[in-house]
Amino acid sequence: MINFSVKNVISFKGIKDVETLYKTCIIKKKSLPLKKEDKYCETEIYKTLQKDTFEKYEMRKDGKLIGDIEIEVNKDSVFVINLESYCRHKYKGIGTNLLQVAVERSMDKGNRGVVTLNADKLHKMQQNPKGFYEKMDFKELPAKTFDISIFGIPMSLDVNKSPFWLKRIK
Predict the structure, then answer these.
(1) Residue 41's closest CA among 18, 20, 58, 25?
(2) Burial (Cβ within 10 Å: 0-12, 13-18, ≥19) of residue 138
(3) Are 67 and 89 in contact (CB under 8 A)?
(4) 121-124, long-range: CB < 8 A, 24+ apart
């Protein structure tokens, strides 16, 4: 019997499942640790999908998926399609570190450093994410009530005008 596995590159109609390590980062455990050194833990962010302008990144801790972000990289901005934290009750910093991927990509290849998204409640359990994005220096954009009810609250971040992000991505 021959055993083999292919997990690094799968291609189907231009979609590439790349699964390459993008970076490692540190997140904080929410529960009170017994030892000071147990307060933080290391995670990895992998780029797992790419098609034209669409990219997907997954954050994993010890091989377990704890969050992901899907972005569309355009000439003038990066649009966050979806940002999800699966273990937010256990860890702090998942969303911020994944959002940093979009911020970094907005500064790549001469882009202007603009990140846009629609803040929308996706699940019954999820709070309205607008407060989180405002904490990350996103500003609400004008929109019609009808559009907000369908797409969510449009928000934008100018990385070049955000001391928080400029310091973080230095």
Answers:
(1) 25
(2) buried
(3) no
(4) 121/152, 122/82, 122/84
